[in-house]
Design goal:
By secondary structure, the chain is α+β, with helices and mostly antiparallel strands. 51% of the residues lie in helices and 13% in strands. The protein has 3 domains: 91 residues, Resolvase, N-terminal catalytic domain (Rossmann fold); 138 residues, Hect, E3 ligase catalytic domain fold (Alpha-Beta Complex), CATH 3.90.1750; 112 residues, no CATH class. The radius of gyration is 31 Å and the shape is flat.
Length: 464
């Protein structure tokens, strides 16, 4: 007995939420478990795809699974076929239950009696009735009033975050401009309900998606007490639409190849795009909020482009031998690991022995010294052992170094095919070379290539 693994009260439709199930797999991968005893397939997994993936992995690891209720042993040849059948039954049962629950919910939406278990800020459930949460509702009224008085959503969010210490009803949430915008747009605050804004997929494991017309939505009036009157709500919606219209008509900042690519080395966050006086910059949010928190000033995107052009020229004309030497070194290290690893040596010996046995078995069959049925059974067993040994060897050989070898070779191929000079910034080449850009200071950028190699370039700021 190694341990007992049990996830109580957790859905079996997805492995990700089952901590003990993940712990079981981790112990199997560490070689601690030879055999797993399970009450039934429905307790093991209700997702056929994930069930089979796990069973195949465990079989390669040398771990068998026995399902007591169905009397199925994965160590036998027919075990996986039976497992597929019963796992499909379990998945169908789970999908049927989910379908029945969705049908019941949809019926209540249609007749206007649906009561969600989760309520928006400002409301709470008491005896299955939606009632107003007075302390929270006061802040909802303040949000609508502040927006009509000229505040924007970010200013309202900052105000709410500053009030958290004195008002526990605001705690437990990260107030952002998007969170405030959702409240200002939510019809719940005038006492109405729009149901099925999101929906769950039919297949397992289910995913929650935004309803963009894939499912019917249901609108019901006066489903609960209102916090905001209809006139105030309409004025806020009109103002939201007006401000969005003005924003869309303003000068649009073009989509940049530096999106989620440029990182502040001081704060660790991505630099956002902003436009000032017709010039596009990459700016640190913390620096924008308070200058003393982060010393990094905004970096013009054109300076990042120029730095990449200089980097490409150096790589093309001076650094290609460095990358080639790096590739040779990595391949040498990989070869030595293959040659001198005790695990690899043992597996090579095992593969050689199994291959010899297979050849001997074939000769005995050709000479009539072995029964055809016995020959087929033994050859199948040898083939399975040989496949398992080769896959184990392959897993041992796969490492970060092998990935870096491939990435370095790809960089060399791109360099060889690329032009000698770049007259202008090339977004496609940039995407093939660069993984991340770190702004170390107001004078220096650090480019991380796709293979992990990091190279620095100066920021040549233009002085006006």
């Amino acid at each position: 007995m190694v341990d007992i693994y049990a996830d109580e009260g957790i859905t079996g439709t997805s492995m990700e939420k089952r901590k003990d199930f993940q712990r079981l797999l981790a112990d199997c991968r560490r070689g601690l478990i030879d055999r797993v005893l399970v009450k039934s397939i429905s307790r093991f997994a209700r997702n056929t795809k994930e069930c089979l993936e796990v069973l195949r992995e465990l079989k390669l690891l040398g771990t068998s699974v026995y399902f007591e209720k169905e009397n199925i042993d994965t160590a036998t040849m027919s075990g996986e076929m039976m497992t597929t059948l019963f796992a499909s039954f379990a998945q169908s049962e789970s999908e049927s239950i989910s379908s029945n629950m969705r049908w019941g919910i949809q019926a209540r939406m249609q007749n206007g009696t649906f009561v969600p278990s989760n309520q928006p800020f400002g409301y709470k459930l008491i005896d299955k009735q939606i009632v107003i949460d007075i302390p929270q509702a006061r802040f909802v009224c303040e949000m609508f009033s502040a927006y009509l008085s000229g505040w924007n959503t970010q200013e309202i969010a900052d105000y709410l975050n500053n009030q958290q210490q004195n008002h526990p009803e605001l705690c437990g949430r990260v107030w952002s401009c998007k969170a405030v915008s959702r409240i200002l747009r939510n019809e719940k605050y005038v006492g109405d309900s729009l149901w099925q804004k999101t929906y769950r997929t039919d297949t397992l494991p289910t995913r929650e998606l935004t309803n963009r017309g894939e499912r019917e939505q249901y609108y019901a009036s006066n489903t609960h007490p209102a916090i905001i009157d209809q006139n105030t709500y309409k004025r806020v919606q009109d103002l939201l639409a007006k401000r969005n219209s003005v924003k869309s008509q303003s000068i649009a900042v073009q989509q940049s190849p530096f999106q989620r690519m440029v990182v502040c080395s001081h704060c660790g966050g991505y630099l956002r795009q902003k436009q000032t006086n017709g010039q596009v910059y990459r700016s640190c949010r913390k620096h924008d909020a308070e200058l003393t928190v982060c010393p990094l000033t905004p970096v013009p995107e054109r300076e990042i482009e120029k730095a990449f052009l200089r980097l490409y020229y150096k790589l093309k004309h001076h650094s290609e031998p460095v990358l080639a030497q790096m590739l040779t070194g990595l391949q040498t290290i990989r070869s030595r690991r293959m040659l001198w690893s005790l695990d690899i040596i043992e597996l090579n010996k095992q593969i050689s022995d199994l291959t010899s046995q297979n050849q001997m078995l074939t000769k005995l069959k050709q000479q009539g010294f072995i029964d055809p049925d016995i020959f087929i059974a033994q050859r199948n067993e040898l083939t399975e052992q040989l496949r398992a040994a080769k896959m184990k060897k392959e897993r041992l050989l796969v490492s970060d170094g092998d990935t870096i070898i491939t990435q370095t070779q790809d960089l060399l191929d791109v360099l060889e095919a690329g032009p000698d000079f770049l007259d202008a910034f090339n977004a496609e080449l940039f995407g093939e070379f660069i993984d991340k850009i770190f702004v170390d200071s107001n004078e220096q950028l650090r480019f991380r290539l796709k293979n992990g190699l990091e190279l620095t370039e100066a920021i040549e700021r233009t002085v006006h």
